[in-house]
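Re: duplicated header lines in exported structure tokens

Our pipeline writes sequence and tokens for each protein into one text file. With two proteins the header for the second block appears twice in some exports. Here is an export where it did not happen, for reference. First protein block:
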Amino acid sequence: MDEKTLDKIIEKYPYQAGRTLGILREIQISEKHIPMDTLKLVSEKLDTPLSDLFSIVTFYSFFSLKPVGEHLITVCMGTPCHVKGAEKILQTIQEHLGISGETEDGKFFQTTSDNKFTVEIARCFGACSMAPVLHVDGDLYGYVTADRIPKILEIYGWKR
């Protein structure tokens, strides 16, 4: 993100309450992640230690330091979802999208080579009665089975 664009975002938040989160949120939405060079620039402009900003970005699951694909798939791995087959759901998604089960920095976060899909896991969506569940771009899918995965992916442009 260039400095002029960042300055326009910062101008929208003149008051301290919620300022940092608001600025970081706009960067995340605009860039689909928060580039480290932009985070450093925010640190300078807000006179906030980079370590404080890094703590915020790594604490909240909404933020990402890595580019996110066009579509974000989040698989719930909370206890009810896990017991009802969430691991099989995740494995099926990985197979269809051609991504591996490797993680980085202790977080499960994988993006397809064409940058179309990013897959991550979460611990609970609060939709346990519909387990297993997943989100795609904020759309909630409940009672998911491995057989339903291709149809769900096709809604978002995946082709067999």
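Second protein block, exported in the same file:
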Amino acid sequence: MIKKQELDIDKVYLLNIKTFNDKRGSFLETYTDNINKVLGINVDWIQENESLSHKNVFRGLHFQKQPYSQSKLIRVSNGKILDILVDLRKKSKTFKKSISIILESRSDVLYVPKGIAHGFLSLENNTIVNYKCDNLYYPKSESGLNPFKSNLDINWNINEKTLIMSKKDKNLPHLNESYSF
């Protein structure tokens, strides 16, 4: 059983997958084709990525430009993140809207459609994030925006000086200079 909740960006959903618990521990099906049916999409997930992050690491906000843009299914298998999303789809009713959501449950899966910049702040050491993509990674198509140069309505609840970011991410442009879909 999969529960679906639409978030405050158009066509972004939080899914909750039923977990089976007993005295041995727990079990859940982290992915089945039923996810596509619940979302009402016809997507072939062709790449899966995994990151391991220390506390206060920020990764993002990333996206791939067309025609290599990616939809993603994001799940935290260990730890806790503040997940950040920004709608870059010009024709969307939520264009330039940003949201954040805490992901920490192994049974929560975040669906991010094409045209959304995505990033996350690791809130614990040894945080593992898995995400499926419907397109391969193309380095020449990668892009992003720096959330700290942009006017995003995000409650980081952290001192920016304690963040750990790659040099590449620090040099990303602000939202108004970024690519739109």
